[in-house]
Each structure stands twice: as structure tokens, then as C-alpha cells.
Amino acid sequence: MIILRWFQQNSWRHFVGLFGTIFAIFPLYLVVLASFSPSQSLQSTSFIPKAFVLDNFTMLFTDPTVPFLLWMKNSALIAGAVSLLSVFIGAASAFAFSRLRFKGKRVGLQALLLVQMFPSVLALSAIYVIMERVFVFAPEWGLGTLGGLVLVYLGGSMGVNIWLMKGFVDSIPLELDEAAKVDGASAMQTYWQIFVPLAMPILSVVTLLSFIGLFNEFILARMFLPETENRTIAVGLQGFIGGQYSANWGPFAAGSLLASVPIIIVFMTLQRYIIGGLTAGSVKG
Amino acid sequence: MFSTNKKRAAMLAVFAVALGGVALTPAHAATKTLTIWADETRGPHLIELFGAVEDQDEGDFVSGYVIDVKPQTNFDALKAALDNATSASGPDIVLGPNDWVPSGVKNGKLAALTLPAAIKADYTANQLGDLSYKGKLYGVPLDVNNVAMVRNTGVPKPATFGAMVNYYMDNKDAQGLTAGLCILGGGTEWGGMSVYSALGMQPYRMKSGKVDLTLSKVGKAPASGDPISANFVNNLKTYVLTPDGANWKSNGFYSPWNTGVVDCEADFKAGKIPFAILGNWQPDLVATSIVATAQPVPGITAGTYGNAFGSVSGALLTSFAATKGNLAAAKSLLNYFGSRAGQRDYQKIEKRPHANAKASKFGNSFQKAFANAAGLASVPQIGSYLDGTGGNSWWSLAGNYWYRVAINGENLTTTTTNLAALLKANVVAGSK
Amino acid sequence: MRIFKGNIYAVIAKLIFVTLAMSILGYLMLAAFGTGDTNIAIFLAVCILMVAFAYLTNISIPLKFFAPGIMFLIAFVIVPMVFTLSMSVFKYQTGNMLSKEQAISTIDQQGVTSDENETAYDVVLGYYGDKASSIAILGSEEQQVEGAAPGVTAKFDTVLGYLDGDKTKLAVLATDTWGDSQYAFFLASPTTFTPLTDADVTLEEVNYTAISTNGFTRFSKAELSAMIESIPGLKFKYETRYFLKLGAPIKGFFEGSVNQSMSVYTYFISTKDKFRIVPAADVVKDGSGMAIKAKNFTKFTSSQIAKYSEEIGKAHLAYKKPAPYFIGIETLPSPGTSFAYSIVQIKNIQYDKKADTFTNVLSGDVYKDDGKGNFRNIKETKDYLDPGWRQGVWFENFASLLSDTRIRDPLIQVFIWTIAFAFLTVMTQFALGLLVAIAMDKKIRGRGIYRSLMILPYAMPSIMSILIWGGMLDTNGAINSLFNLDVQWLQDPWMAKISVLLVNLWLGFPYFYLIAAGSLQAIPKELAESAGIDGANPRQIFRLITLPLLLRMLTPLLVASFAFNFNNFNIIYLLTGGGPSFEFGSVAGATDILISYTYKLAFDTTIQNYGLASAISVVIFIIVAGMSMYGIRKSKVLDDFA
Question: A66-246+266-282, what's its fold?
């Protein structure tokens, strides 16, 4: 009886859960399948693997024309530097937007939002030309350098992060910094001594989300870092299947798998905070 | 905490240190470099030819210069980079297809050059014409891009298109054929053009080295330059279509793209498809013995062939070379590319058919087979006629057409009439 | 006023940071000035001032927080945005990409042509006199002169006729009357040489001279006398290198002697302003007779060639004919050789700065600014010079969005699909996300596992998952083959739309699941409980209480998600590329949204139209901004900042 009632009450929940789970992992399962398959196509006629080879993986680590580890390092460096710096810079702005009173705050926020909505594909050309000039006078920060791409990304991620973090800052109770103000602390001191320690978990979440977002960037990176040893992982892997006449799904699947695993692990480990972070920004009742 | 004096002192110190940092002047290396941009396959091959920058002695190929090859991720990326580049980062030479020449000149990205008569004599007028715009030459031909038809082991050499269809129909059930003719290289638009051509459709017709502009008027008799010949529809019905109610659909012989049933590469290798269109950049896709039989797609009557696109890719001279002061050096390297020795050395690595006919004797059987097919039946790929200034490019028309009439079951006559009008419009637009 | 406030370490840290930032910016500024990038240098200078103002004074507290963000935002977001906005009022497309100055200088640079004979010289590079920087070439001009062929003294008696009955195909039938040559008889045309034996020919009885052979017809006396004056000097092939030259007639026969062409060189040194003929005595020649050294001329060493390569490539040296003729040096000498390749050119297209016209000095054609971004021939308007430049056209691009049916019609379709795509995406993602969230809103067995697996799509880098979906949905891909289907997932217009939505649902539902789950927990349980006590069933509770509350909470996120998907370039571009195209050959396709259509217009077609693309960008911007502002005002998100 108890089991039957449990089923009546919960069976639909399991049904939904199972459906969602199958939908979610179906493509991922195929990636796993493809990465261990000797065929270069993404065509499989069975859910059960017929052969199990590691060729696709060994190729990533041995073929000198596909420096997989270097690409991973590039992506990690770029996404890491940008997400840390942009959160560092953006948090200050978000704090100011949330807590300070100044003229033009509303206009500033709206402007920031508008800028965010601008369809920026055409800006590619302008950015290219600017960074090309930068390369002329500062070769280590211009077009074709990791540093240059970091700068460009920093500009691009500023708006989103400020907007996102402002939501989090708003959710931190005001009483604490009121108290600090009474103690005679300056805005900067309040920021560093009260706000930053309090917001640390949230800042980490934004950093992580920002990191994942940057990992995905493709259009700009492809144009910006064409050289094999400078490519990001997204551009490098796309090269397997984006060639003029070729589609090597095997190595692509293997590479995607390897590239995703660290991110997924971090995501899973921190999922409690991420969920908290995501909702904190939006949900204020 | 701080007195005003101390504050001033501190601010001064900040500025002083800042100035100190500024005073460090940058030092730049003075090696002269020629930069080449190429796609993901040619790029690494060029590096193999010239050696990595750090391994080169200055002046191995051009007096006083080292050659820096930068491969881009793929063709699209290469084009995008070239579109955006200015002399600040742009290359001196870019390896690209002939249809980049007109837009490159119009956008001020390319510069003209004059080849010595001895090198010029090694190329056909068509090849040089492919890389020319308004009478000036902008690069040297490097390799021929074409496709040819290969047939599977044991399949007899077909004399006509009909013979291939018959072979497929006769053996379909016995051998479990999934299709008769499929495309391994070049896609429907590029590789498949030779199939359309065999049946009577071509984006434009050639007459003594130029595009034939004699087009029929509405309701008038067919003209020599018509992209779609009078027999085309009938040929489709006879050879590749089968009735489907009031309309028509594919009879299964021609399979320009892979479907759930047809996997061109796997099925051809397994002997389940007798004929395939192979690109000359795919030397390793099928067995050498099969490649040796490469030929153009046979036409409706024996001895005629469907024309394949035979374009050349070239090493193009950019205007950045002039801006950067590398003009003479870049032209020197282009002369090397164009020379017989340069062609021999490069194609030994690149393994495509030689553009320089004199160098083709150094080719392997693969390179020779494709050069031979190109010699029998080819039509130059002229961007201005194909890309359609009116927005009707051949590239999107060709595949779409087959999809519409053979798969989607649209009315054959109407769709073909529409296509004919668009192709004619392209020819007219391209000639301007 | 206290400026340096607070803890000593904090102050020191701040000073170090500010100093570092300023010196880096200053260093970059100077470098930018050095290379002539004044705009960037000025921007950097303003940044330095801003840093100083923000951190070394206490005038504006907020600026201390905003300064770094503002700098990045301006450099990499605002400037490119302004650039895009401004492009929309330009004719800016393939053929009109450069600025007018750049176009003029390119036309000018490229405005040369080879001379009539395509004269070319192999020359030695060097300098004249003692200034290494004044480039000179030492050239050898070849002339062909005729002389007796060495070792061939034979004279032939010949009769003149023609081949194959065609009187234009001149030929001679020659006889070695005196027995001096290895050839007793031969037949020769200007391009062919065929030795014959006496079996092949018919002899004239008096002199035993051959008068006929197969395929050869002798001219009649009347024919000969009509052309008699043009005969002496005619040349016919002899062996491979030599030729037979006819002399004066004797009784209908012509004496032929064997000659050769010889190269004779005249030598010259050309500098920028003078073309000097050099006496043969003043030059040192190589084996073939070409000059390799000369008096007053110093050959460049290979390091000098490298050093002066730029000047060599640009040099316009004097030719024996006056300007616009000049000699240009095409190449550097190949390593290990002495000679560079140079050609005689004519500067045929010349710019008149005052009139702002180009003139072709050979044809006399004048090219004038046509107001549309090109120099156009004033007589023959189809003829213009490449490249053109971007020309301001005010609102022409915007007008063509409305008036040109080839642009307007696809644009309308794309616009409708963009709205539908964004709306349906948000709806489906939210609906599935909410459903899952409600299902998981109770501690059921395995909830943690469900959740972990279901948020995988959100954790996985989306670029890779989109590409993988693309491969799976390929006609030849995993989905068709696994389920034994033959569906044109990405080729059929409607299936492609469904596929895009499906993939986007996969990508986005976990996000909404997480958000909705969080929000559900934030809704006070008492509300539902009290409603339950009042007799409402769970469905009613959901419809009347939970859902409205949720929607109120999540509206900003739904709006944001709508705006994001409105511009969701990656999924469209990477999954379908916008295809399949609407009509034969159109740029726009069934799954194109405005931003991907814009991208394709600007970057992916042969006729790239940045002007039109940026006009569309501006329109998109206005629409999205309008919608978001409306949404924000409606949801009162910004109310706290009044």
C-alpha cells in the first residue's frame, strides 16, 4: 500500500525526471560513443559501442599539428585572466551602482544595458582594426596575441558582469555598510572590508559563469588568434569539423569530452553555490 | 595620517616612477620577413617547403628575407582575416582561389605583377586569366582544383552516362547498391557541377576561351550560351528521375549528398556504390588503383563529357607588400612559386595537380590522372558569373535545385524554368 | 581634506597600483604616438588623466569604482559600436571599402601598365657614383642581328611555291646543287624543315634542280612576277636553329643561304633621373654577353639588396623614352644570381589633385568622382577605376531596407522568425524548466542524480554541444541512423526551424530549471498551505498563486533571455548557418535571425555589404532596446535607483 501511494504521488515526478535526464544526456552519450569509436563520422547505428579504441585521444596528445594541451592552456589562461579581472573590475562598478548615490546613476545603468543589447557582430571589423594598430606599437598586446584577446574580452564582458553582479549586491543587506559608514569608513573601505568578504561566494560564482562563457567564444577568437599554437580550444576543435572538405568527428568528440570534463566537474562541485548565485541575483520576492 | 607635504611628495613620487616607466623605449628586431597567409592544408605544407622561420637562413629563397607562413584555421577564417586586414598586420602574399581576385582588387587588397615571359609561357591563357582582373595579373597559379569521376574495382569503364545508369539498375539488387553515383569531394555545387554538365546544365558556356553570352530570349529558340540546354529536362527524366504521381523524384542513381541510406565514402569503399566524384585534394581517400582510372563524367553520347570546374588557386600579391616595402621581395618569391622548380618542390609536398604543365611530369599517378581529366573536360571557374551580383549565386542554386525537384517533389518544369531564368540573369550580370 | 586615508599598507598598495597603471598607460601612449596612432594615443592620455583624477584626488568617489570599467567599455565596446552606427550612413561594401585617400593612393600606385612591346630587361642592381642610396640598374638591351651561320657554307638553289594548294602557305624546295651539304634536297616553310631524297622529288633536267614534290606547288611565272619584289629576304626554317634566306632570282631560281640570328647588346645604366648608354668598352660581360659590371657603377652586395629592398621595389628609373615611361624593378636577384627582372612601364593613370580627377594619359580618358564612391569615366560611364571608397550616402541604406524588394522581403521574413524564435525559445525553455522544477520540488529518491544529470547541458561548453547537435542532425548523422529515419533535419525549412528550437531547448532548459527551482523555494509555503485549507486543489494553487508569483519574480529574467535569444548568433550560425535559403540563391535562409542575417550580409557573401548590414544592426538595436526598456519599466527593476 505504501509503495502504491508513493508511486501515485511521485511517479509523475520520476517520469518527468527520467524524461529530462534522457533528453539531457542523449547527445552527451553519443559524444562519448563517438570519441571511443574508430569511425570518423558521427554516424552510429547502435547505442551499444561496437568497438573501443583510444586512437582519437592519443592523436590529441601526439599529433604535433593538433596541440590539444596547448589549446587547453590558452583557453584556460584567457578565460581565467578575463573572468578574474572582469569580476574584479566589474564588482567595483556593481557596488557603486548599488550603494553609492550620484548623479546620472539611472542613466548610467540604462546606458549599460543598452550597450549590452547592441548587436555587435559588425563591431568585429572595428575591433580588428584597432587591435591591428595596437600590434604595431605594442606587439605583445595586439592582434594575434593572447594578451590582446584578453583586453578585447575584458571590454566585452564588462557590461554583462556589472549588470549581473549588481543584482547580487542588491541582495546583500544594507545594514552592514550603514554601520560601517557610521564608523567613518570611506566608500572604498566599506567596499574592501565589508562588501568584498561578504560577496566572495557570489563573486566566485560569477567568475565561474564568466569563465564558461568565455570558453565558448568562437567568432572573435577565430579571427583574432589564427596561429595553431595560439588557438583557443573552441577554435582548435572546430577546426576538425570546419575544414573545407573534412569532418573528423572522432577527434572532435574526444577533444570536446576532455575539454568539458574539468568544467563539468567544477560546475558539479559548486552547483549548490551556482544555483544560489543564479537565484540570488534575480529573486528578491 | 599624512600631512599635505607628505602627500605632495608621494604624488610627485608616483609621477616620477610613472615617467621612469615611460622612459623605457621599445626595441624592435630588424630581420626582414615576408609573410604568407594560407589555409589549414597549404599553410603547413609551405612551412615544410620553406622551413620554420627560426631554421631559415636569411636569403634562402629571397635575398635578405626569411619567409613566415601563417596558416589560418580554415578557408573562411582566411577570407575573413584578409577582408579585415590592413597593412598593419596583413600578409605580403596570400594563397587563395581565383575568385578572390576581383573582390580583392576592388577592395584594394591586391597588387598587380608582371611575370617574366619564360614563366608566363608555362601557363595557359586560361590559368593566367583566372588570376587576372581588367587585364592585369595579380598572382601566380599554384595548383589546379578539379574533380574527376572514379569507378569502383571491377566496374567496367562507362562510355556514356546511360551506361552508368544501366550498370546501376542491372546490379542494384544483386550487389545491394545504395546509389549509382555519389559525391566524395566538392559537394553538390562544385563537384556535382560535372554531373549537371553531363546532363546539359552549366552555370555558363564557354566559346573560344570566353563566356558565351549568346542567350535565348523568352519564347525564342535556344541559344548556344544558354546555361540549360533543350535536352536537360528530358535527360533528367531519362537517367536520374522516376515518375512520382504528377511529379518526379530521384530514381536512386544520383546521390549528391549523404542520406540515412547512402554514406558515400563508406559505401563506395564497401563496393556498394559503383561511381563517385572525387576531389583532387583527396589523394588518400580511395585506393591508388581506383584513382588511376579517374576520368570526367561521361556525357549522353559517347566521347562527350561533363565539364568539371577547373579553377586554379594562386599565390596572390597583396597591396600590403607595397605598403610595407616588400614589393620586390614578394614578387621575387612569386616568381619562384611560378617557376618549374618552385612548382615541382611545392607540389611534391602539396600533392595536387601542378598548375605549371611543364612541372607536371614530376607528379605521381594521382596528380597525373586528375590533370588528364581536367584536360579532357573542364570549364574555368569565374567568380563574377557564379556568385551572381544579383544575389543568385550558383553555389546556393545548384544543391537547392536537386533538393527541390528530386527530393521535395516540386514541379520539374516550373522549377527548371525558374532556374534557367536565374542562371541567365547571372550570366548577364557577370558580364558587366 | 584628507586624500590618503586608511591603513598604511592599503595606501602603499594603492600607490603602487596607480603608479604601475599610469606608467604602463604612459608607455603605451608614447609608443602609439611614435607609430602615428594619434587617436589611440589621445585615448590613452585621457585614461591617464582619468586615473590620476580618480585615485589621486577625492573629487569623485564613484569614479574610483568606475574608472577601469569605463576605460575598457569605451575602448572595446563603445568605439566599435559608434563605428557600426556610423557605417550605416555610408556606401560601404565590396568595391567601396577604403577611405578616399587610400583609394586615391592605391589607384595611383596601381596606375601603371607595361609598354606596347612588354619590354623587359635582366638587370644588375647597384648604385651610380658613390651614393649607395641612389639606386641604379645596369642593363643590357638585346638586339637581333643576322649573320652567316657558323660552319654552314652551303648555298642552295630553290624554287618558291606553296603547300597543300594553299597559296598563303609559302614554302621552298631546295637543292644542294654543288654537293656541299648533308641535305641533297629539302622542303622548308617558315616553321617546318623536311629533308628529302631524290626519290621524293622531280628534277628539272637542265640543272638537276628539284622542282616538285608531294604537297608542294611551284608558283607559276605570272604569279612569281607579281610578287617578285617581295621575295628577296624571305626566311625559311633550316635545321633547328638556323634559317634559309632567299637572295635575288636567277632564271626562276632563288639562291638560298643559311643564316643565323645573333644577339648584340647595347648597355645602359639607368638612375632615377637619367638613362645613360654605356660604351661596350666600359662594361665587363658574362658568358652570354650581358653586362655584369661597369664603370661608375657599383653592384649591390646581398646585404645592401636586403637593406634597400623597399626602395628597389618602389624605384621609378629613367627609360630612353621620356615620362610617362619608366623602368620598374620587379624582383630582387634570386639568391646566387646577378640579375633582377625589370620591366618598362608607363605611368598611365595620373592624378590631378586640384581637379580631383584621374586621367589616362594614353587614352585621354578622364575619371571624375561620381559622388557614389568611384572615379568614373566621364564619357563612358560603365568604366570606372578600382578600388572605390566608402561614400557617405545619408539614409540610403535605411531607405533600401524599405524600398528594395530583394532586401525588404527576406528581411521581413527574417524579422518574423527572429521574434518567433526568441519567443518560442523562452517559452519552451521556461515551460520545460518549470515542469522539471515542480517535479523536483519534493525530496524524491534520486533527486540529486536527476539534477546533476539534467544540468549537464548547462555546464557543458555550448559551442561544442551545438556543433555536436549539428553533426547528429545531419542527414547522415546519428539521429537518422540510430532511429532509421530519413528526415532532412537541417535542409527542410520547417524541420530546420524545429531543430533549432529543439537544440536551443536542450541548451536552455536546465538554466530555467535551476532558476525556477530557486524561486519555488522562495515562495512562502504558508501561502499554498492556507490556500489548501481554503479548499483549493493543487492545480488551482499552482495556477492562481504559484505561477503568478513566479512570473512576477522571473519577468526580468524572461525578458533578458528573450533579448539574449533575439541576438543568439552562435546557435544559428553554428547549427544551420541560417539555412536553408529561402529562394534559390538568396543570402537569407529559413532559420536566419536578424543578427545572423546581418553577419552573412557583412562577411559571408561575395558582395559584402557592411553599410546595409550596419543599417540592419541599428534597426535591431532600436527594436531590442525598445522592448527591453519597456520590459524593465513594466517590471520596475530600475525603480530603486530613482
Answer: MetI-like fold (1.10.3720)
